[in-house]
Structures
1.
Amino acid sequence: MKINKNFDNLVPNYLFAEIAKRVSDYQTANPENDVIRLGIGDVTLPLAPVVIEAMKKGVDDLAKKETFKGYPDYEGYGFVREAVSGYYKSFGVEVSADEVLISDGAKSDCGNIGDIFDKDNIVLVTDPVYPVYVDSNIMSGRNIIYADCNKSNNFKAMPDKNLHCDIIYLCSPNNPTGAAYTADELKEWIDYAIENDAVILYDCAYEAFITDNVPRSIFAVEGARKCAIEFCSLSKTAGFTGTRCGYTVIPKELERDGHNIYKTWYRRQATKFNGVSWPVQCGAAAVFSEEGQKQIKENLGYYQENARIISQALDELGIYYTGGKNSPYIWLECPNGMGSWEFFDLLLTKANVVGTPGAGFGKNGEGFFRLTSFGDRDKTVEAVRRLKEILA
Ligand code: MLT
């Protein structure tokens, strides 16, 4: 019996598990300290009332023989896929319901999609990078190349036409930097992908935070249907981090290596995934109703105001940052040339505030730090006060 030795090539702990452990150790040693968590991007507001009502009704359905539901359809219930399709239409993008697959979140699908691709494909990720893209490909033994994002390109890497790759992960608005690609920039990636016969795996889990005139979907850009798969999630959009629901869009005509991508992914999902529960899919459909959209926008506005409060403090302190706009994340340069983990320790021990060290997202994250706007308002205000106190 042998273990998959590729796991030896991973960093020992998943980034957010490592942070949780360090914070827990600190809390155990200092139980009287009030620690404010602005690290992992986990929401703090409750689900919208219309979503709760739909979920409750879904639970009631399970209590009666006539409305009881067992296994859901592998690709999700039709009315939820129709709702997602209608949502795309609301911002001018045509995606048909039979190109939508409902899942338990973008993280799972981004991590699992590699199952359908050969191990010898070359993977390109932008650095800093959401660790799931890297770790899941290391587990499969794939070679990864990194496209640098830094201050000089506003944390938006563009394709290098001299390099070949087969699988391209893009996240826009970006986790962790908040940078959002324009339609012209995405078109360059699309042209490059088509030229290389590559597939773009496009993570737009943060599209609901977009306020500028940048695409909310890669399918808003010409050519994307020839090369892209899109992953989205209700986690950040509508507070489903705990209840779990997302969706993946695969153009029906997309093919590579003589294989239809939708059919191949469907085959994978039918084998390894049994769908999202009825009450949660009922809640998900409610997100896309007129009332649902109104209610989730109130929650999004609350987080956007938190982002404004954090950004304003950084402006006052003269600290360079990106994000906070089009994104719930604020990506800041550590003050006084500090390293990411050094700043993490300083903030934890002197201000009792938790953030995410940029180095955890890749080599270009060293010297940077991520704060989230998903916290409680009063705690965010207090965290900012403490930040100013230790840095003033
Ligand atoms: C993050 O903090 O980067 C996210 O919450 C992680 C995730 O969505 O899995």
2.
Amino acid sequence: MFSKVLVANRGEIALRVIRACQELGVKTVAVYSEADARAPHVREADEAVLVGPPPSSQSYLVGERLIEVALRTGAQAIHPGYGFLSERAWFARAVRDAGLVFIGPPAEAIDAMGSKTAARQLAISAGVPVVPGTTESVRDADEAIAIAETFGFPVLLKAAAGGGGKGMRIVRAASELADALASAKREAQNAFGDDAVYIEKYIEGPRHVEIQVLADTHGNVLHLGERECSVQRRHQKMIEEAPSVAVSPELRARMGATAVAAARAAGYVNAGTCEFLLDKDGQYYFLEMNTRIQVEHPVTELVMGLDLVQWQIRVAAGEALPFAQKDFAPRGWAMECRITSEDPSNGFLPSTGRIEYLHLPTGPGVRWDGGIESGSEVGLHYDPMLAKLIVHAPTRDLAISRMRRALRELTIDGIETSRSFHLRVMDHPDFQRGDITIQWLEQNLPALTAPATDRESIRLAAIAAALVAHEERRAGSGTATAAVMSDGSTVGHEASRSAHGPSWRDVARRESLRSL
Ligand code: ADP
């Protein structure tokens, strides 16, 4: 096993990797930008090294500097997390050339899966079903129209180098194709420095179902079942669960075998994910392989009972997987909500500022993978995902009620977050039935993101009342307190617990929970 690992990331995933290392008895080196000097991952690591100014292009993305820090601090391996350098083949190669271990797949496997068109070619040659379309980028609109007409509109234009839904355009008629192609190319050029765009049939109303794969250097390739990630906004996942209501044990075995075949064809090692679209008839199509740990890996960990990040590290250190495929069947139901610094009632506009107060949910079956704390500054330099709230319960219904309970316990003051949106999804009958496609969220956006309902107005009023009460109590006139509380005796009880009485935040939190 390694004695020291450098964690080339920030936020929740840096902390996640550091925790995995701590449990394995491995020392950690954190890297950070000037904006993250006080971030939790910096404090939790054994060592931390400043690598540059806030923009990631000058800090977290400067691979050469990260490798130099690893060499200087005596780390033997680099864990890239997700995003940033995690899927850059040149970085994996540079790490290896420096005599270090890249905790992820070989550079060749990243290359093979890195471009969507190359991945499609590889999948086809391995007998993996893909969405009808091209395996090469289209030259111009005329060619694109001719191709589209062979399988019919609507079609989807996709950036070959794509990721995060960028460079994608749905085209419903030939007359729209030229404009859509030009704008997809522009967006792809800006985002990836590569304007290659190819064309796929647009599948109406599918689910996004992905298969977790884990492979070692001894030829073992296993799949760890599926994650359902259909709750998406602008092709970005918001809520994930494992297993999927749409996947039977028989379909799981078939999709799993397909994912294993794709991984073997790419010479894959370490943790990876094959993404599929699953249509209404149970037909599935390979989309792409993500050659890294994914944001949503915890739901698989909870239902399969293993630590994927620790296995990434152990596999990278040369250990053989001690499991057989038959060891893996999902137990219970896990669900994850991405807590982002975005304002759902305002078009998911990014929200910035200082987290004044953070109260985390606890209790049975609740897991919080976060990178924030009270006092954290949330800016615009990095991804808006602050944390993941994950629950595990015996059934899907119980997972939903557990998630609702945990979301209510969660308080993040100072910035807007996606919390209220998630609560509404949990309350939605379609979601409760599991009757969801990748278009569901966009189709139901108004209902899921409308500004404060009456109940929420009551919550705000309760917070204001609690503030006034607290101020009055501090000023010595405790009598007003009971009058504004919905349950004055509880306040009295709280007050006797502490010499100074409850803080206004505690009172406001309790009042707001009660009014929900
Ligand atoms: P990215 O790498 O940018 O995330 P993907 O190929 O994974 O791009 O696609 C992102 C999302 O777009 C998928 O999860 C799915 O919701 C939707 N999507 C992709 N391809 C198709 C398709 N052919 N038909 C319908 N929806 C699609």
